[in-house]
Write a structure and sequence with these properties.
single chain, globular, 7 helices
């Protein structure tokens, strides 16, 4: 996470990140203000999509759910269909038109404020999408290893049979 912040040109310590991630009831927990979260999201975009040359975007002092949603969409390089699929993972349906309203500029006649429930479901869907993918990769790796070990055992057994004949 420290490297993601560094991608947005913000130096943070391991202790700061650790305190931001602590549970609310932990006495060492510290809240992460909007500006710091905006830096993290900008860094995530740079990390995932590549850092653009020139001046970096100025992190917002005040975030809302629409900005957070948009930055995650950009960082993860998601199209509308991808977001709808991710939302379906948590049994949450939304139309493509409703979705596009969240990414319009405030003041546009079709702009719509992203409610907590929508962002929460999207974040939960991202957890499922990416955690499951990681779990599957680690399972595939262990299955391949097990298959390889079984194959080695079979080769040794066949080799032993060949030596006895």
């Amino acid at each position: 996470m420290i490297t993601v912040f560094a991608q947005a040109e913000l130096a943070v310590t391991r202790s700061q990140v650790s305190n931001w991630l602590k549970k609310d009831d932990d006495p060492e927990q510290q809240s992460c203000d909007d500006n710091v979260l905006a830096c993290y999201l900008n860094g995530l975009i740079n990390e995932m999509r590549g850092k653009k040359e020139g001046t970096q975007p100025v992190p917002e002092d005040k975030l809302n759910n629409n900005i957070i949603f948009k930055k995650l969409k950009i960082a993860l390089n998601l199209k509308a269909e991808d977001i709808l699929r991710i939302m379906a993972l948590v049994d949450f349906t939304i139309s493509k038109h409703e979705l596009s309203a969240f990414f319009r500029k405030k003041g546009h006649k079709h702009y719509r404020e992203c409610q907590e429930q929508i962002l929460r479901n999207f974040l939960h869907g991202i957890q499922i999408e990416y955690r499951d993918e990681t779990d599957l990769q680690s399972l595939r790796g262990s299955e391949t290893k097990q298959d390889g070990e079984q194959g080695d055992e079979q080769e040794h057994e066949q080799g032993d049979e060949n030596h006895t004949n």
